[in-house]
Amino acid sequence: MFRRLPDRQGDLVTFTFDGTPLTALMGDTVAAALLAAGVTRFRTTPVSGAERGPYCMMGVCFECLVSINGRGNRQACLTTVEEGMQVETQHGAATYSTEISA
């Protein structure tokens, strides 16, 4: 369902999704880059494990949460893809350590 506009061109950046190398156009959001690559499942819900993907594409619904470079709860629709970025499916709720590094 998601298609890139035919006149949209530019420099490419390389990133990974769940370990698979992908390319995107510089300036794409992570959500747009994943959708253009055919990825529709970005996360699973904490309670039922239901699969979710982008819905609003403007940061309101939180359905596009992913882990980026080891940090969970990142909104893919609001994050610009960067060279070497490591994006992963978020399974359930992200947890954070309360320990402070010295």
What does this structure look like?
The chain has one helix at residues 30-36, and strands at 12-17, 20-25, 43-44, 51-52, 65-68, 71-75, 86-91. The chain is mainly β. It has a single domain, classed as Ubiquitin-like (UB roll) (Roll), CATH 3.10.20.440. Strands 1, 2, 3, 4, 5, 6 and 7 form a 7-stranded mixed beta sheet that branches. A hairpin with a 2-residue loop joins strand 5 and strand 6. The longest helix has 7 residues, at 30-36. The model has no long low-confidence stretch (mean pLDDT 90).
Topology of this structure?
Blueprint: E1 12-17, E2 20-25, H1 30-36, E3 43-44, E4 51-52, E5 65-68, E6 71-75, E7 86-91
Parallel strand pairs: 1-7, 3-7
Antiparallel strand pairs: 1-2, 3-4, 5-6, 5-7
Keywords:
Ubiquitin-like (UB roll), 7-stranded mixed sheet, 7 strands, 30% strand, 102 residues, mainly beta, globular
What's the CATH H-level superfamily name? Answer: 2Fe-2S iron-sulphur cluster binding domain, sarcosine oxidase, alpha subunit, N-terminal domain
Number of helices: 1
* CATH-scheme architecture: Roll
* Main sheet: strands, sense, barrel: 7 strands, mixed
Secondary structure: number of strands: 7
